[in-house]
Amino acid sequence: MSKAIDIGQLEKSRIELQSQLDEAKTSQDRNRLGQFATPTALASDILAYARGLLPSRGQVRFFDPAIGTGSFYSALLREFPRGRIKEAKGFEIDPHYGKPALELWKKTNLQIDIADFTEQHFEPRFNLLICNPPYVRHHHMTTEQKARLQQLSMESSGARFSGLAGLYCHFVGLSHQWLAPDAISGWLIPSEFMDVNYGQALKKYLLDRVTLLRIHRFDPNDVQFADALVSSAVVWFRNSPPPRGHVVQFTYGGNLQEPARERDIPVTASALEKKWTRFLAAGVRAVSDVPTISDFFTIKRGLATGNNKYFILEEEDIAERDLPMECFKPILPSPRYLKVDEIRADDDGYPVIGKRLFLLDPDMAEEEIEKSYPSLWRYLEEGQAQGLHERYLCRHRSRWYAQEKRPPAPIVCTYLGRGDTKNGRPFRFILNESRATVANVYLTMYPTPLMERALNANPKLIRPIWKALNRISAERLLGEGRVYGGGLHKLEPKELANVPVPEIAEISPEPLFRQREMNLQTVTD
Q: Could you tell me the pTM of the whole model?
């Protein structure tokens, strides 16, 4: 490599090139291919950390299977003495980025192959792999692509990825056979794998096949990619079996050099915990001896109407159209329009709130509606004229206008929230004393048989239970859910069900709590 190369100037040229190439593509095209470039500062931080993981002397054989314009290679040149860089190789599937990168780095020792990395024969000689793999979600891949990648990943790494795994999981799996013994790998990937079901195969690989050194999760409010709303993590491992008693370092926030929080977790504890983000949120706990919400409530998502604007109407609209009120049921407005956490009911069971909404749900055949309710028949004809009956949800119903069954739940929970709210409550538990159902912007909480018996014996018990739910710490709730870039948190039904609530077991003198393995209730999506 020539000593005359100005690395600083090359990086400036690369940043300008990256901007020009990105602007020449639509955001939809880049999103579909998962093309999100690594910022210069982050690339430098990652390569500086990698330098500390490698022996202080010895040659570096660098590999990046999704090199783009070469942000990590540029950082490699800035962070490592040039005499140590024996070899550098990368793949780029898109000529739009690959050809300009070839021209940019032509005077260096970087070899860029413009080809699909997943179709290449492996060369197991590289001792430093750094990669920001394409963030392509599974629904952008065909069934044939998934089957091919699943087979190749299993052959390479032993990881059995599900059909829901993103392309980045397969990049990790396929890269295994490119690594020399004791090679260091650093992966900048979405942190969602730490919590979701499809991430279990990746976590098993990290715990069983290699030595997982560290996972640094960035603060979700500190989005690393300006053009991708995703919460990121850097995963570090060594290509060697984990030693006995190995401990993994989990860090959070700040940067790699100065994290805001850190904790060492034994591999044995990591293997038992399904949600790794909890290690720095709520700590490790035993899962067999602590009561959770699933011991007291069955959690279901609120109903999906198929078209809220058409199926949910205000009282004034119903009256103006002369529609039969007996064909409607009350439904709560979305959380942003519901300012109270306790819904009282009038004599008819309707919620006593400022803006009352009603869900169209006639339980009768079209012939009967046409005969008995001409105004409603005309309204249904309007819906058909708009093509609503051909929409996915509607056409898969026995009657396109009939709603799924979601009876009123005594408690409902918001399932989207932020951890930095003024009141410190990312999610709200709402006591519902009315006959109102809810749409899928809420999670419904129906008492289990055990809880139902307790409530039948003492109906007033629901109020202290509701208050106990609202006293659950934000940390505990956020520890069970998942997080997206920008700090948006989400709770799925199973995740809410897993929230520990030992306080509820102490509210009633009845033995409400039974261990999970004895709990027969089912949590459904």
A: 0.59
